[in-house]
Amino acid sequence: MNSLIPLLVAAPLAGAALLLLGGRRLDRFGHWLATAFAALSFAFGLALLASMLGRETAERQVDVNLFSWIPVNGFQADVGFQLDQLSITFVLLITGVGTLIHLYSVGYMAHDERRRRFFAYLNLFLAAMLLLVLADNYLLLYVGWEGVGLASYLLIGFWQHKPSAATAAKKAFLVNRVGDMGLSIAIMLMFAEFGSFAFGPLLGSEGTAGAVGQASEGKLTAIGLMLLLAACGKSAQVPLQSWLGDAMEGPTPVSALIHAATMVTAGVYLITRSASIFNLAPDAQTTVVVVGAVTLIFGAIVGCAKDDIKKALAGSTMSQIGYMILAAGLGPIGYVYAIMHLVTHGFFKAGLFLGAGSVMHGMNDEVNMRHYGGLRKYMPVTFVTFGLGYLAIIGFPGLSGFFSKDKIIEAAFAKGGTEGWILGGVTLLGAAITAFYMTRVMLLTFFGEKRWQPDAEGHEPHPHESPSTMKIPMIVLAFGSVFAGGLFTLNSSFLHWLEPVTGHAEGDSPLSPLTVTLITTLCMVAGVAVSYLMYGRSPVPVVPPVGSALTRAARRDLLQDDFNHAVLVRPGSALAAALVYFDSRGLDGFVNGLAATIGGVSSRLRRIQNGYVRSYALSMFGGTLVLVATTLLMRSV
Amino acid sequence: MNPVNYLYLAGLLFTIGASGVLIRRNAIVLFMCVELMLNASNLALVTFSRLHGNLDGQIIAFFTMVVAAAEVVVGLAIIVSIFRTRHSASVDDSNLMKL
Amino acid sequence: MSYLLTATCAVPAAGAVLTAALPAGTDDGRRRVTKIVALAVSLATLALAALVAVRFEPGGARYQLTESYSWIRSFGITFSLGADGIGTVLVLLTAVLVPVVLLASWHDADPERGAGGTADPATFENRRRTQAFFALILAVEAMVLVSFLATDVFVFYVFFEAMLIPMYFLIGGFGDRAGGPESARQRSYAAVKFLLYNLLGGLVMLAAVIGLYVIAQDQGFATFDLPTLTGAVADGKLVVNPTAEKALFLGFFFAFAVKAPLWPLHTWLPNAMGESTAGTAVLITAVVDKVGTFAMLRFCLGLFPDASKTFAPAILVLSLIGIMYGALLAVGQKDIKRLIAYASISHFGFIIMGIFAMTSQGQSGATLYMVNHGISTAALMLVAGFLISRRGSRLIADYGGVQKVAPVLAGSFLIGGLATLSLPGLAPFVSEFLVLVGTFTRYPVIGIIATFGIVLAALYVLVLYQRTMTGPVKDSVRGMHDLKVRELAVVAPLVALTILLGVYPKPLTDIVNPAVDATLSQVHETDPAPAHPVAATPGGEQK
């Protein structure tokens, strides 16, 4: 059974290789091949889950060591996999949602001439993401970590002929590289401190303590902060959040799979996986919580101001991951709920993105919500599935988001003390804003009067429901959005499932769970109400109003790009230009000057050589005379 | 006769040859002056041989004569061919390889 | 005594003579014979090199397959060859790259294609142009191979310097299609600059070689034999006073640092790589320059262990400057080939850093880096050469949207670029990470600063890719054809090796590790121990 674990990664990898190398022959059925490989991986995942459920809790973790990867004296990096409850949860999310999105893409990308390559990249992404969550050491995790970055780069820039897409792809990769630097340094710190970076010896498993226990808190804080930097890059957390909005240049299925459901949550996985380190480094944990809280509000504000449906959802993704990071930063109180929210978010956010894609599909690829309106009659399936996703994300009682978000808010209060109150307040505020902007998206898109505009070539939009390859994934995800949270909370099943890996502690909340739930629901209702008053009762202008200073800043992603541009890009390019000048004028100028001086001196010396034999003879005689005279003189002295 | 006198003669001949090389421009004359210098040194070598009572000097003189003969053959041939093409035996006129 | 090593070096040398002597001609048939002969010779060399690698026993003696022939007896100079782990992998690299370069340069020396010759194929200089180009490349290969295998300091010096002659003619005589009217002048400038820089380095080294001999002779070691000398130094039988040792170290190091090149001695490289053909550029950066870094490991560390340790921090700082400086300059370049040249300068910074970090990870990483950098830069540079040969311009601004018209070319370029930025899973990542880890364990601050280099690497590679390959198709690239079969045959082995060595570098590390351990023990260094050691991960067992 365990031999299935490498196959989990190998199946989509083989698919990617086959599709990339296979050439045009595979154009006709390549997409189905890719979907089959994804589904195969999902089937392997299910089989492994079944086998894991059949074992005792203590024996659920499985290690497979494939081969020695980089052996250099003390530095031993292996290619090995570790499958436990945490990784299988991710595996099923990745392959499950991944397969659905492969299916969706069959319809969505039907008319793209480079469809085969798109599916190859999707398969590549699945392989890298599975490697990330299955690796049994940080260096192999790093391979998956950058592998998903590569797939994300290729897919954001899939429509490379658009300069905006190419730029967005480059930006995503670069910002992620800054995060990767953090992971790099974290691994180096681990190696220098412990001589290893494998999960087993380092973090320990249930019952056995890892090596981290012996290290000083300062070292662990440093490692934790570097891991956090990595997580910030991949999960678009402040201050490395700026790439996610631009990443929406990619095809919508990509946004759903990579930039909503799976890849961007890798940061949460990293922090949860490194729980043993963070638990011993309270300062690092506090930083994690702060980053999560700031991003939560940041993303929510950005989401309120965007008129581009995908960018509004991207802001929301950022904000929801902020919730997860915050929960992960809370320590054992929050790990399980971070992952639970991650899974439910994977369902409803992927569903929302697919819905957005379906809307765009029917509206000539229009993304501006101010040009939508009244679409519920024309796209009933999309409306219903999107609506269920909407209810889930705002935390409508009984749906997935309600259970998972509620738990995080409870955990935030349970942190205790002033901190607990602040964090609880922030998460509640976030819940209210979430309700506000999601209601706005809903109202602008599906309700109100038609504000449709002809596209650049003058075609009037004719909204229509999408083909069934696109509808089925949306329906399945809608089911997930509705029921997943409830299932997980029933008998605290998710808690018992993950607890052996992540550990769990109950905090002492100043408020009873029921109170928290009530307040959360009130906040949600308030957000919905405000949004309805602003967008539901009066017609929405097609041209956006000027808005307040905050709105304008939020439309520009709260000036993050301007900040990066002023602080990093401009000084950076100035430095590069200055160095180019220095290299050609300074270093090279010095050398060339030296050469010119020597040249000048020798051209003067050359004049002595006049070409007349007798003058050479004279100098020879002169020289001889001098020599003889000197010899004689020396002898006489 | 005091053999030292031969040395004086050799010095005189050498000086005459050297001054000729430095002053004259005609290739033939230059050539003769070089020969004069060679013969002056031959004379000096033979004299030293006599003074020291061994044969080293005479042997070297033979070498010099052989080399001088070879040199005359090549040198005269060059001078004649230059004279044929350029109608001048002046060394200053042959400057094709000068920059 | 086996003759394998001599044969490995002699085959390309004989091939060079043979190629040069083939009948001159301007028709395609005669030229093709020349090219096929040269390719066959390089493939034969590859076979011999592979045999060397197979016969080499990783656990065996430091120098294996040794051969020695008397040369200049009065100075104790022998023509001796011997393969150690580091030399063996570099011999393999050279032998793999030369056929690839030959195949990539197939038409570069045709008078009517490449710049540098007049278009009239019947002129005297053009009649032998193809023969000259291919013979010169084989001559360089032969000399590089001897340098990697020489165990006699004097023999190494001779071939280290002699290499300059064919390289000079390759750079000065053969350019790419992009040359304008100015190009002949710029090319000769580049060739002279290359020659002068390296000659200067070589002369300083010659003085140091003589100095070493004089000192060794005084103490009864009238020999240039490297194992004898390093053994005597290690045993304390040959004692060089510290001042003299430092001077000698600097003399050797200067020559190697020019060749490697280390900041601030690097300025010849962008000129030489920019003006020559893509094949020559690969030969310079992937093969010839490696002799410099290789020699640091073999000669500087072995002969002058104490001086090496004294100067290590200063050299690390220079290499760190080189990493950042090369990367920043690459960002600012407008010329594709110069950009790759500056990227190489940054990578050489990593290699030298790994060597002088004096840890087994650093030095194993540096050795792997030499191999991986050779392969990845070759891939990037040769594909860039294919691109330039289609459009006839080296300027980034002249391209745009190439991926639309030539997707395979663009894809190959991207893979080469990703390898250059050390994407995990590809070969350069393994070596770069080892170098960083190795440096970090001894000098944490330098290690952390060097890590910034990976961000800059991503910047210059992706900006290059974005500007040339993506965006709307420019008129100038419209109708550009995709890679041909010959060009695919160039790219495919490089890409395959990049992936293979990224996933499974163990065959190389097995050969390299013992040699690195031996080098480290020469300088009396051990790895810094981790503060809290944990047992190595259990291999292959399942819970």
From TrEMBL, chain A:
Where are the membrane-spanning stretches? Answer: 32-50, 87-106, 118-135, 141-160, 181-200, 220-240, 252-272, 284-305, 312-330, 336-357, 378-400, 420-443, 474-494, 514-535, 613-634
What membrane topology is annotated for this entry?
Multi-pass membrane protein
Please give the NCBIfam families that the UniProt record associates with this protein: NDH_I_L (TIGR01974), PRK06590.1 (NF005141)
**Record carries keyword ATP-binding:** no
Principal location class: membrane
The molecule here is called NADH-quinone oxidoreductase subunit L
Where does the record say this protein resides? Endomembrane system; Membrane
A molecular function (GO) held by this record is: NADH dehydrogenase activity
Q: Which UniProt keywords apply?
A: Membrane, Transmembrane, Transmembrane helix
Q: What is the lineage of its organism?
A: Bacteria, Bacillati, Actinomycetota, Actinomycetes, Kitasatosporales
From TrEMBL, chain B:
Its main subcellular localisation, reduced to a broad class, is membrane
Give the transmembrane region(s). Answer: 6-23, 28-48, 60-83
Q: How does it sit in the membrane?
A: Multi-pass membrane protein
Q: Which reaction is this enzyme known to catalyze? A: a quinone + NADH + 5 H(+)(in) = a quinol + NAD(+) + 4 H(+)(out)
Q: What class of enzyme is it?
A: translocase
User: One Pfam family for this entry, by name?
Assistant: Oxidored_q2
Q: Which family does it belong to?
A: Belongs to the complex I subunit 4L family.
Q: What does this protein do?
A: NDH-1 shuttles electrons from NADH, via FMN and iron-sulfur (Fe-S) centers, to quinones in the respiratory chain. The immediate electron acceptor for the enzyme in this species is believed to be a menaquinone. Couples the redox reaction to proton translocation (for every two electrons transferred, four hydrogen ions are translocated across the cytoplasmic membrane), and thus conserves the redox energy in a proton gradient.
Return the protein name: NADH-quinone oxidoreductase subunit K
Automatic annotation (TrEMBL), chain C:
List localization entries.
Endomembrane system; Membrane
Q: Which keywords belong to this entry?
A: Membrane, Transmembrane, Transmembrane helix
Q: Please provide the Gene Ontology terms (biological process) for this protein.
A: ATP synthesis coupled electron transport; electron transport coupled proton transport
Q: Where is it found, in Gene Ontology cellular component terms? A: endomembrane system; membrane
Please indicate if the UniProt record lists Membrane as a keyword.
yes
Q: Where are the transmembrane segments?
A: 36-54, 75-104, 133-160, 194-216, 247-269, 281-304, 310-332, 339-358, 370-388, 408-431, 443-465, 485-504
- Presence of keyword Transmembrane: yes
Q: Which Pfam families does the record cross-reference, listed alphabetically?
A: Proton_antipo_M (PF00361)
What GO terms are given for molecular function? NADH dehydrogenase (ubiquinone) activity; NADH dehydrogenase activity; ubiquinone binding
- Topological category with respect to the lipid bilayer: Multi-pass membrane protein
- Looking at the record, the residues that make up the NADH:quinone oxidoreductase/Mrp antiporter transmembrane domain are 150-456
- Family, per the entry? Belongs to the complex I subunit 4 family.
Q: Do you know which NCBIfam families this protein is assigned to?
A: NDH_I_M (TIGR01972), PRK05846.1-4 (NF004500)
Q: Which PANTHER family match?
A: NADH-UBIQUINONE OXIDOREDUCTASE CHAIN 4
The name of this protein is NADH-quinone oxidoreductase subunit M
